[in-house]
Amino acid sequence: MFSAAGANLMNAVSKTAARQFSTSGGVSKKPVVAIAGSTGAVGQELLDLIKERSFPFADIKLLASARSAGKTQDFMGKTYTVEELKEDSFEGVDIAFFSAGGGRSKQFAPAAAKAGAVVIDNSSAYRMDPEVPLVVPEVNPDAAFDRPKGIIANPNCSTIIMNMVVWPLHQKAGVERVVVSTYQAASGAGAAAMEELEQQAKDWVAEKSPVTQDIFGRQYIFNLFSHNSDVDQETGYNEEETKMIKETKKIFSDPNIQVTATCIRVPVLRAHCESINVTLKNSMTEDEARELLANSPGVSVQDDRVANKFPEPLASSFKDDCFVGRIRHDVSQPEGKGLDMFVAGDQIRKGAALNAIQIAELLMSRS
After folding, report:
1. What SS3 state is found at 14?
2. CB 152 within 8 A of CB 121
């Protein structure tokens, strides 16, 4: 029988081991899971994917802000009560998915990691932290197993969608430069933005003027505008564009790859699109690129010139893969050294929740 001092020592050792366990290696094949931000669009998508992919878990904790605490949600035959997200919410948790915003991640993710959980964070809070891996499982899976702070960052949604097709080209032919223009759906700004776009459509039909403009402060339907993130007054790049530039270098472990981006909001409910131009180090034909991408995990080629059928956000919504088409030689560059593509991917799914689930599955596969 242990003395009180012995029991305390054992508890201390156990907690230390848990903290060490969270910084490297795999996790339990049937983990206790927490979702911070469970009532938001990404949190709800995480639950959908856990069910769809038969993601094994011993228990789930639904965490959200104080205003959502006490709400109930039926999930897989059981009723769960949403708890307020606090620093002491993570005792016994193996994997903590965070989709509650950067401020909440900075406040609570360290506490989750200290409690022994592996944190998979969807916010921008830790993406450029040199001690936090930034992971796309199809690109840099090994990075997930070296996490000094016990935290793994999910990249920006636009970065993920772009690099699902740029990475295979980079591996094969070397990509020197990427020029990308994004056409980003309301989903990137959360459920409230999606609801406002629907409301603006109703307002338009009802001839209400002006239409509801609570989220972006402008008409969204029948309009395009520069991404709503802050613009750097010196460079002219907004935060979304800067994320794509910096995150790509970190994910690829290649500081020399050059990226420039222009990010635009479009009146689409769900799924982002991107027009991508790459400059290659080594020549590649259109057919070689098409075959390479068709055999790349998480990528589907939709490139029918005869029928003029290419990726579209509606057809890409609620799909796991990123769709690529309009694959063609860039006539402004030397033969075979430049390619143009058009990509569509579900921002909530592969751009956020699915990527996070895949990271967790990756960790469990090596436990």
Report:
1. helix
2. yes
- Which pLDDT belongs to residue 25? 83
> How open is the CA angle 221-227-230, to the nearest 5 degrees?
135
- What Cα–Cα distance (Å) separates residue 161 from each residue in 150, 165, 168, 285? 25, 7, 13, 22
CA distance 139 to 276: 18
| Beta-bridge partner residues of 24 | 146
Q: What are the angstrom distances between the C-alpha of 148 and each of 24, 29, 31, 104, 143?
A: 7, 22, 20, 20, 11
C-alpha neighbours within 13 Å on the C-beta side of residue 51:
10
Domains with residue ranges and CATH for the chain: 4-125 (3.40.50.720), 159-347 (3.30.360.10)
Distance CA 13, CA 338 (A): 56
Question: Of 28-37, 160-169, 196-205, 309-318, where does mean pLDDT reach its minimum?
Answer: 28-37
Catalytic residue annotation: 157, 272
Give residue 260's pLDDT.
98
Burial 114-125 (b: 16+ CB within 10 A, else e): bbbbbbbbbbbb
Paired residues of 301 in beta bridges: 324
- In this structure, the dihedral spanned by the alpha carbons of residues 104, 106, 109 and 115, taken in order and rounded to 10 degrees, is -120
Give mean pLDDT, residues 30-59.
96
Which neighbouring-strand residues pair with 261?
A: 180
